[in-house]
Amino acid sequence: MAGDQKAKAKMEQAKGKAKEAAGRTVGNEQMTAEGQAEKSKGDARQAKEKTKDTFKR
What pLDDT score does 1 carry? Predict the structure, then answer.
């Protein structure tokens, strides 16, 4: 389960980064903001999983 969540976090980060870059390229501020939000969500999920791993050891 933890590996699945880690993969989901990486996917959210990549998707957010791509969306943010696309938004900047076309000048769409809303798309840029959505990309940043998705990337942040992925960062938060990854931090949560790292914390869980720390306490498992």
Answer: 52
Contact status, residue 32 vs residue 24, Cβ threshold 8 Å = yes
Neighbours of 38 (CB within 10 A): 20
- Mean pLDDT to the nearest integer, 30-55: 93
pTM of the model: 0.81
CA-only gyration radius of the chain, Å: 13
Query: How does DSSP assign 1-57, residue by residue?
Result: -HHHHHHHHHHHHHHHHHHHHHHHHHT-HHHHHHHHHHHHHHHHHHHHHHHHHHHH-
Amino acid making up residue 25: T
